[in-house]
Amino acid sequence: MMLWLLVLTLPCLGGSVPVTSDPGPGTELVGIVGGHDAANGKWPWQVGLWVFDPRYSEWNLDCGGSLIHPQWVLTAAHCIPGRNPETRHLKVQLGRVRLSHQGSVQVARIIRHPNYSLENGVSGGADVALLKLEAPVRPSNLVGWIRLPPASSEFAPGTRCWVAGWGLIGVQEPLPPPQNLQEVEVPIVANEICRQQYGNVIQDDMLCAGSEGRDSCQGDSGGPLVCKWRGTWVQVGVVSWGHKCGLANFPTVYARVTSFLPWIHSHIHSSP
Fold first, then answer.
1. Cα–Cα distance between 229 and 77 in angstroms, integer?
2. Which of these is catalytic: 104, 221, 240, 259?
3. What is the DSSP letter of 10?
4. Is 78 labeled as catalytic in the residue annotation?
């Protein structure tokens, strides 16, 4: 079974922003499926992760992420390139729905989850990483942080949540100019239902969401899945992987945020 996730980047074509590509034969490429343009400031915690590709000497938007604290971004571990990634090769775009790495913020520290395995990749679980920004960001009507869910919070199957990203919208088809952030509402899918399709690769630290024609996809990795909890938006998932996109029985698999709360808090609160 072909799975999508971040693979590698295309060199810049015709001045458009390079995006993740080349997933191998049999994998379908689409961005946010069934979505539409997100309004400025609607998801103020949504960030774009720009990665420098030394082979082509260019910056590519490879993934999404979320601002969970004035100085910390949560993203997917598989979005961080290489065994020994360099902070100077990562920048974070904040407060914009259209793609641009101008004015983006430099990353000062990269922390992959210790249980994430470069050998096993996303199927091994723990597909989360933290990025510390060089300086705290100031909140505004366009920039803010998403709350993390209480450890005890549960979201029943069928709960309608939202995911956003700048992923591809068709086979080798980048999001067309002006490359506006896409958003789509997706239902939570029970892990036992998800296991019927994907098998036992679905672990307790994963969460599934999506339905036919409404889904996240390649290039959206690392972005937040957010749900309303007692009237407040909270982040319940991090886009991780899936089989094709928008298929009836193959929802996207997310890292389950409640599984990683102690790890997240230990870094954010111990940091000077």
1. 26
2. 221
3. P
4. yes
